[in-house]
Design a protein that fits this description.
The protein is α+β, with helices and mostly antiparallel strands. The chain has two domains: 113 residues, no CATH class; 86 residues, no CATH class. Helix content is 40%, strand content 17%. It contains eight helices and eight strands; from the N terminus they run E-E-H-H-H-H-H-H-E-E-E-H-E-E-E-H. The protein has a six-stranded antiparallel beta sheet with strand order 3-4-5-6-7-8, with no helix packed on it. It has a two-stranded antiparallel ribbon with strand order 1-2. Helix 3 crosses helix 4. The chain is globular, with a radius of gyration of 22 Å.
Length: 243
């Protein structure tokens, strides 16, 4: 919930008339003040999801940076896109725009610059506790992916990232490669995306992020073979979506 004055609103509700009036009257920063920490928390959550941050220290830094400049960033967003405050934008959609402004402003670099990689993230964690936690860790499928060969031009060609929290699959990261040995096509694509709620019921990819490798119309299976998706068994289709 987001507090606007004394009345809490849902992220699904339209931005309040009071907040719109404040921005229209030229006090854009007041929107950040009215929405207060709740809007900042919603924006921070969008940024954390977009950057795929998992460490508690990094999440805390995002929230700290957002809360410290939410007013100015909101004012910038509204000045660049006044149509956002015409009574059709939900708080959730508005938070996405504000998060995009923070990302465009380089918040990712600011986080990296503030995190001291030489200091422990959990200062009170003993060596024994760390070892116990480490033994419970589970890794997914490891991939060795080539960079671009400066002489031949083969290898990595491009990386495309898409993020929209309102889509069924919120996050996509696609890497394009050329000249991969053993691939059935000259071009190969490695695609990583967040959970797909439209995947078959009970499948791993329905609730978890997965990676697929395809070259032309064929997908790579964990054993190194390539098959068209329509020619696969249900088990092979599941295996082609690697964890």
């Amino acid at each position: 919930m987001i507090q606007t004055g004394a009345k809490p609103i849902s992220p699904a509700e339209i931005v309040s008339k009071a907040a719109v009036a404040a921005v229209v009257n030229g006090v854009g920063a007041a929107l950040g003040s009215v929405a207060s920490k709740q809007l900042g928390s919603l924006v921070a959550a969008k940024i954390v999801a977009r950057l795929g941050l998992e460490q508690a220290a990094s999440k805390a830094l995002v929230n700290e940076i957002v809360q410290g400049s939410i007013g100015n960033t909101v004012q910038t967003v509204v000045s660049q896109a006044p149509g956002l405050i015409e009574g059709k934008t939900t708080w959730d959609a508005f938070a996405v725009k504000v998060a995009e402004a923070f990302l465009a402003g380089g918040i990712g670099g600011a986080i990296a610059g503030k995190v001291n990689r030489n200091s422990p993230l959990f200062k009170n964690l003993s060596d024994e506790e760390f070892e116990a936690a480490w033994k419970e860790c589970e890794g997914g499928t490891m991939l060795q992916l080539p960079g671009k060969n400066p002489k031949t031009g083969q290898g990595l060609q491009d990386i495309k990232t898409k993020f929209d929290p309102n889509k069924p699959i919120a996050h996509h990261e696609n890497m394009d490669f050329k000249g991969i040995d053993g691939a059935p096509n000259a071009k190969t694509e490695v695609r990583r995306h967040s959970a797909n709620p439209n995947a078959p019921e009970g499948s791993y990819s329905q609730d978890n992020p997965t990676t697929q490798i395809n070259s032309g119309k064929k997908y790579r299976l964990p054993d190194g073979t390539w098959k068209k998706f329509d020619d696969m068994t249900p088990e092979e289709k599941a295996a082609a979506h690697m964890d």
